[in-house]
Amino acid sequence: MNSQQHQYSQQHWHRREGAAVDGAVVIFDLDGVISDASLRQSFFTVDPPDWDSFFEAGALDPPLADGLALARLVSAPIVILSARPAAVRDSTVEWLVDNGVPFDLVIVHPPGDTRSSADFKSDEVDALLRLGFRVILAIDDDQRNIDMYRGKGIDALYVHSGYYELLDLP
Ligand SMILES: [Mg+2]
User: Domain residues of the chain, as ranges?
Assistant: First the structure.
């Protein structure tokens, strides 16, 4: 197995059949950008927060009309890079298909990885670059991720979801 096959075979990666294998891509975050996670916030009113239920309920999220429209307008291949856990990778892919969200790659948080969203996303971006992808734009609703992208010299567009003013999401 070469390094490229190894990368795609990881539990937290999903590659669409026929997807791009290199070149320009646009990265979209999912929750708060394309998926409306606001209806799941009741899982935070319990102590401790019920993270498993929070992420599992993502399968029922309505799409955000503006984020979905933007994704459909992008002509470059799309990488969905989300801090959702690997346990919901497949349900996330189903949700994207069911809602007509275009994507080439879906990358979520690796199993057992407790690093911050920005640290995890930074490593995944580095992996994409090693595979020959070029990130021409990243879109996210977490300013820490925006700062990470810009620190790598990647243009990044901040979307205001309001989630981070209320909650300490991973
Ligand atoms: Mg988000």
Answer: 3-166
